Amino acid sequence: MFRHLRPVWAEINIDNLINNVNEIKRVAKGKELIAAIKADGYGHGAVDIAPFMLDAGVNRFAVAVISEAIELRRNNIDAPIMILGYTPLIFGKDLLRYEIEQSVMSYEYCKKLSTLATEEKSIAKVHIALDTGMGRIGFIPNEDSIEEIKKISELPNIKIVGMFSHFATADEANKEYALTQLDKFKKFDEKLQKRGIKIPMRHIANSAALIDMKDSIFEALRPGIILYGYYPSNEVNKSIINLKPVMSLKTNIVHIKEVERGTSISYNRTFITERKSKIATLPVGYADGYSRALSNKGKVIINGKIANIVGRVCMDQCMVDVTDIEDVKVGDDVVLMGEDSGLKIDAEDMARLLDTISYEVTCMISKRVPRVYIKDNKVVKIRNYV
């Protein structure tokens, strides 16, 4: 435990982060890396991990919303940043002021952005979003879109720096649909080129495509979850790239009590002891991102042994059965997510219990949990948000 922090913290292993970037570079073979650092770097702390990513060879960043981009700029991250989602033009001046690259999906939007950029004597850099099959945002790859993009390319003070799309099923064993998307992307680009529109940076490859679909890597790729040490699914070829989880989640025991058989634990009495038991209380709950759905299902590591979460996970606390753990005491370290003594509970393990994906598990860890950054087995930074 770190004495000046509350006894719940997330450890961010910078060496593992660097390993993952290096592995991506090895497989990508010189292509530009656009690191997906949205959702506060998938919960790892975007501002704090971005410099390490740049030092390791990341070229650009991708975020979801403009506030994420501005936060990076205000913390001296000057690498190119693109916004993957929609930005209302009320924030248009911020796009220009902070030199943020915007995804676009209509001529009308670009026309208004062009007018603003001209008034501000600036250049708006944009990435054409193409919907090849995700059904989310972007131009439909048809002739009408060719005409719209042609008009966008002729707008004053608008510079098309890229075109991108997103795979819906690249993480599945069956790549038929993903290959259909890739074919649409290629053919649309060919049609643009025939109209004299050469896109400098084309990017559709995500984490899964880097592993299984090398032909989808053009000038750049957008890795996401693999940066943080997790494979996008169990259906990709994991032997291609060696990943190491970056985040661990830890706490300390704050209370231990011995209770008789038949004692109920936590809300709604969902757990009742079947023997004389020793119950430990942990100061972590769903407000910290430790999901209530882990009630009576979650597991933790204490003193080299697995212990079960018992009863409902509360907003700020939860309980574990430590009856079978010798010499357990208040203050002992508890691994909620991570490794200890040869045992491991990672985000994928937790995701299986929650019927979700590792992405959501790391993103759930709230700002109430301090981030402790460790490199070469030394603490290099602590971020205490609240």
Automatic annotation (TrEMBL):
Enzyme class, first EC level, given as a word: isomerase
Organism (species): Clostridium bornimense
Modified residues (N6-(pyridoxal phosphate)lysine): K38
Main function: Catalyzes the interconversion of L-alanine and D-alanine. May also act on other amino acids.
Keywords, sorted A to Z: Isomerase, Pyridoxal phosphate
NCBIfam families: alr
Pathway as given in its UniProt record: Amino-acid biosynthesis; D-alanine biosynthesis; D-alanine from L-alanine: step 1/1
EC number(s) per entry: 5.1.1.1
TM annotation in the entry: none
Annotated residues for binding of substrate: R136, M315
InterPro entries reported for this sequence: Ala_racemase (IPR000821), Ala_racemase/Decarboxylase_C (IPR009006), Ala_racemase_C (IPR011079), Ala_racemase_N (IPR001608), Ala_racemase_pyridoxalP-BS (IPR020622), PLP-binding_barrel (IPR029066)
A GO-annotated cellular component: cytosol
PROSITE patterns for the chain: ALANINE_RACEMASE
Cofactor: pyridoxal 5'-phosphate
Limits of the Alanine racemase C-terminal domain: 246-374
Name the UniProt record assigns to this protein: Alanine racemase
Residues annotated as signal peptide: none
Catalytic activity, as annotated: L-alanine = D-alanine
Molecular-function annotations in GO: alanine racemase activity; pyridoxal phosphate binding
Family stated for the protein in its record: Belongs to the alanine racemase family.
Keyword Ion transport found: no
PANTHER family xrefs: ALANINE RACEMASE, ALANINE RACEMASE, CATABOLIC-RELATED
Lineage: Bacteria, Bacillati, Bacillota, Clostridia, Eubacteriales
Active site: K38, Y267
BP terms from Gene Ontology: D-alanine biosynthetic process; peptidoglycan biosynthetic process
Keyword Isomerase in annotation: yes
